[in-house]
Write a structure and sequence with these properties.
It contains 5 helices and 7 strands; from the N terminus they run αβαββαβββααβ. With about 180 residues, the chain is α+β, with helices and mostly antiparallel strands. The chain has one domain: 50s Ribosomal Protein L5, Chain: A (2-Layer Sandwich), CATH 3.30.1440.10. It has a 5-stranded antiparallel sheet. It is globular. The protein starts with a helix and ends with a strand. Keywords: Ribonucleoprotein, Ribosomal protein, RNA-binding, rRNA-binding, tRNA-binding. It comes from Candidatus Acidianus copahuensis. This is Large ribosomal subunit protein uL5.
């Protein structure tokens, strides 16, 4: 029985294998100031990567946000850092992700209401409590043709990742229950 599975895996096309492209962690505050600096240091501590500031694309008078104002911080993780971060963060949501969190293009997003529920982090009264959003992007080998500078091409629909492919990858790789 074990030998049959190995044969099937050998005969599968390696270009159809789903892989983790990146994990983007975002803390959106809607305001700048001292609280934004605290969110910056917290995100740097959680991810181990230097975050970047996010800027408002348009003015929203009701929220007091002006176009061009710094309103949040985000950090992008790739390769082993991304996997390690996900393995640390997923227990904060009890290794459960809603099926509505998956889109039809291989992306998964979920939120964490308070960063202190992440295992290994502790409450610091100087920093406070922040919520954060985690966005997971999945892709297959060959997606680079859309992003490269020279001779860009479109990835055909049959090669893109479906919702079912993304659900299966997250289940198998990280042991997550999809509800």
């Amino acid at each position: 029985m074990e030998g049959e599975n190995e044969i099937v895996e050998k005969n599968q096309n390696p270009m159809r294998k789903v892989k983790l492209a990146k994990v983007t962690v975002n803390i959106g505050l809607g305001e700048s100031g001292e609280r934004l600096q605290k969110a910056y240091t917290l995100l740097e501590e959680l991810t181990g990567v230097k975050p970047v500031y996010t800027i408002a694309k348009k003015s929203i008078k009701e929220f007091g946000v002006r176009k061009g104002q710094i309103i949040g911080v985000k950090a992008t993780l790739r390769r082993e850092q991304a996997e390690e971060f996900l393995r640390r963060v997923l227990p904060a949501v009890n290794n459960r992700i809603k099926s509505t969190s998956f889109d039809n293009y291989g992306n998964v997003s979920f939120g964490i209401a308070e960063h202190v529920v992440i295992p290994g982090t502790r409450y610091d009264p100087d920093v406070g409590v922040f919520g954060l959003d985690v966005a997971i992007t999945l892709e297959r080998p060959g997606y680079r043709v859309e992003r490269r500078r020279r001779k860009t091409a479109r990835v055909p629909r049959r090669h893109k990742i479906s919702k079912e492919d993304a659900v299966n990858f997250i289940r198998e790789t990280f042991g997550v229950t999809v509800i």
